[in-house]
Design brief:
It contains 18 helices and 19 strands. The chain has 548 residues and is α+β, with helices and mostly antiparallel strands.
């Protein structure tokens, strides 16, 4: 298009630009002037010589600029700059279909390959994961977004069929774990490969020896009313008690780097999942008996016995107010001050470590006061009965006066203040008290992993009904979380002030122009100019992914 225009001669007030082919095969760009008296042409200047088309265009542009400088600003009305004409003609042929959003692939796609997911060689899985990172939503919305902005055309039914087989195993081939959950045998499904690749990535980040692992569970709810074998109503950590849900158990290494996950029925007791998940993932990945860190929801006599029987060391949050009367009185008698750490020997190598912090005390006091206010409102309605007197929540402050009168026991409420800020930890490790507290405090890694999946990746609510599709949805979110974590690590290592949230927005306005060369008809692409923040993000990811 542009080449054809610039390759011709242009007569302008006696001067014109011409290309001359040399014997060597190169071209010279020459400015000539027509001599009316001799009826010949005089060479004014040889601007330059090249074999490269782009360099020849640049030489011609300089030639026209030289002619303009000689003739001044006043040009004939019929003058046309071939370069400008060519550019205008080229731009007039560009439509929205030629512009492609390229940022997600430049950023998340590079990290996808860096971690190792590229070896899956599955374009549909790649698109679903990357779209979950920068435009999370339903699969139907994902199909529309891919078609409109990335020029990728998938039929939604094809995606559903793909999800059915992403982690498919026939039920007859499955064994049962300690919770009655089906254990799928190792195979070549994508979920198995994703877990293997993710664990290999975690080992690269954390070192070959993983000495501490963190386990916790959360609930993911469904926008549906009916239950089935997997989706059950139960205690919801999202506050959606009327919605069917599933439990997601996640095991991570220090820093939140993922090891693996399992999903369970929505009405299971979370304490029953700890041993099966740790054992299954340890057998799958071959890591050897790390210290297991979990919160108080996983504390039970059977879990402690099973961990010790299997040779695991552990640090588990304790419910100090549920300890024996002797231990409770011992803790109260310690008269703990902020920053104090005390140890109670429970025998058989097990210790109860107790600490008190001002930050936790303020949180406990606030929660206790709010609980009392809610209880008072219920009390003022006169609807509280004898049936409400139990140890569930703040009902523990209710008491009977006489045979029929219900009242709030303020003495019990005030006595509870002695426990504000007190936290206990049960452990059989040989770590000192401060190391135990430091290890347990790192549970925020896994709490943050749940927040990122529920918030940034919108893993809930889940709109799927079939078991295989639910597992596939979790697998996609798990993969996207791993990529998000790697991006955050790179940004932190580069001392960049770009957050992962900002990075997602920056990728949405990184564009690529796809066009066809006018003469050769070759298809070509060029990434459009980025702003400073986009360029910074791109450079950080590109430089680190090139080191793979």
């Amino acid at each position: 298009m542009i080449v054809g225009i610039l390759g011709s001669s242009l007569y302008l007030c006696g001067m014109f630009v011409q290309r001359k082919r040399n014997e060597s095969g190169s071209y010279s760009v020459i400015i000539k002037e027509k001599n009316p008296r001799t009826r010949g042409n005089r060479v004014v200047m040889i601007v330059g010589t090249s074999r490269n088309e782009r360099e020849l265009l640049e030489l011609e542009r300089k030639a026209y600029e030289y002619i303009d400088s000689l003739r001044g600003p006043l040009l004939p009305m019929d003058y046309h700059d071939p370069l400008e004409d060519g550019i205008e003609k080229f731009l007039s042929g560009i439509s929205n279909s030629h512009i492609q959003v390229i940022g997600p692939e430049l950023i998340y796609g590079r990290l996808y390959d860096k971690i190792g997911y590229g070896e899956l060689a599955n374009d549909m899985f790649r698109h679903l994961v990357i779209c979950r990172l920068f435009n999370p939503g339903s699969k139907l919305r994902t199909v529309e977004y891919l078609r409109r902005y990335l020029n990728v055309d998938y039929d939604v039914e094809a995606i559903y069929k793909f999800l059915d087989n992403l982690c498919y195993r026939k039920e007859k081939d499955c064994k049962k774990d300690g919770c009655g959950k089906s254990i799928r045998p190792e195979g070549d499904d994508i979920k198995t490969k994703v877990e293997r690749i993710s664990f290999a990535y975690t080992k690269r980040i954390c070192g070959d020896s993983i000495s501490v692992v963190f386990y916790d569970m959360t609930t993911l709810y469904f926008e549906a009313a009916q239950e089935d074998d997997l989706r059950k109503t139960g205690f919801s950590k999202d506050g959606k008690h009327a919605c069917p849900q599933i439990f997601l158990g996640l095991l991570v290494a220090p820093g939140g780097n993922p090891i693996g996950y399992e999903i369970y029925e929505g009405n299971i007791h979370e304490g029953k999942t700890l041993i099966p998940v740790v054992e299954a993932l340890a057998n799958k990945h071959g890591f050897d008996h790390p210290i297991v860190v979990a919160d108080a929801g996983l504390l039970s006599k059977s879990n402690i016995e099973e961990l010790q029987k299997s040779g695991y060391e552990y640090i588990i949050g304790a419910r100090v107010k549920n300890e024996t009367e002797e231990i409770r009185q011992s803790i109260i008698g310690m008269n703990l001050q902020y920053g104090d750490i005390k140890v109670i020997d429970k025998g058989s190598g097990v210790r109860l470590i107790v600490s008190k912090s001002e930050k936790r005390a303020k949180k406990d006091e606030h929660a206790r006061r709010k609980g009392l206010e809610r209880l008072q409102k219920r009390f003022d309605t006169g609807r509280l009965t004898k049936a409400n007197i139990n140890r569930r929540g703040y009902n523990k402050y209710l008491k009977m006066v006489g045979d029929v009168t219900i009242t709030i026991d303020m003495e019990k409420y005030e006595a509870d203040a002695a426990w504000d800020g007190v936290k206990g930890f049960v452990t059989n490790t040989e770590l000192d008290e401060k190391e135990v507290l430091a290890s347990y405090s790192n549970l925020w890694f896994i709490e943050r992993a749940f927040r990122m999946n529920k918030g940034d990746l919108r893993a809930r609510p889940i709109f799927h009904r079939l078991h295989n599709r639910i597992e596939a949805h979790i697998c996609i979110c798990f993969t996207a979380y791993t990529i998000m974590l790697e991006l955050e690590r790179l940004l932190k290592a580069a001392n960049s002030d770009i957050t992962i949230y900002q990075a997602g927005h920056l990728t949405k306005t990184m564009y690529q122009l796809n066009y066809q060369m006018p003469r050769s008809r070759r298809l070509k692409s060029v990434i459009l100019q980025m702003d400073s923040k986009q360029q910074e993000l791109y450079d950080i990811v590109r430089q680190n992914s090139d080191k793979m």
